[in-house]
Design brief:
Elements: H1 7-63, E1 81-89, E2 92-101, H2 115-203
Antiparallel strand pairs: 1-2
Helix pairs in contact: 1-2
Length: 204
Amino acid sequence: MKVKLTKGELKRQRDALRQYERYLPTLQLKKQQLQLEILHQQVTLDKERLDEEEKMNNAMSWAGLLSDVQFDPKKYVKSGRLTKDTRNIAGADIPLFVKMDFPRAEYDLFITPLWIDAAIDALREIETARKKIEILEEGVRILKHELRITTQRVNLFEKIKIPEAKEAIRLIKIYIGDQMANTVGRSKIAKRKIEEMVLEEVAV
C-alpha cells in the first residue's frame, strides 16, 4: 500500500475511515436481514412443496380417470392467469404471489360425469401450488444473490478498507511526528549556534 505522507492525505484517510465505519453497520444489518428472510422464505417454500405433494397424492385417487378420452378434465382446464406483486426486502425486490385466475370451464353438465368438477378444481390447485413454488424459488434466488453482494461488501470494508485506512493513518502520523521532531531538533541546534555566536561577540 503506497501512501502519501502528508497532512492532506492524513485528513483524507481519516475522512475515509469515518465513512467506512459509519457505513459498515448498515451493511451488517442488511446482511442479517437477508439471512433471516432467506430462512423464512425457505421454510415457506418447504411448506408449499409439501402442499403440492399432498395435492398430487390426493389427485391419484381419480388420476386413472384421466385416461378417459371422452371426459379428460385437462381439456377443460386452461392455463391460469398469474397476478404478481413485488415486496422489498433490505433493498431487494422479490416477486410475491397474489392469485391465479382461471377461465371458466365450458362443458355440458348433463353428459359429463360428476367427478369432472372435482378433477378440474384439483388440477387448478396443483397449477396454483406450482406457481407459488416457482415464485418463492425466484425470490430465494434474488435474496441469495443480494446476500452474496452484501457479504462481499462487508468483507471488503472489514478486511481491506478499514485496516488499510488505519494503517495509512498510523504511517502518516509516525512520519509527521518524526518530521516535527527533526524540525524541533534543527531549531535547537540553530538556536544554540546563535547563542554561541552572541557569546563570542560579547566576549570580543
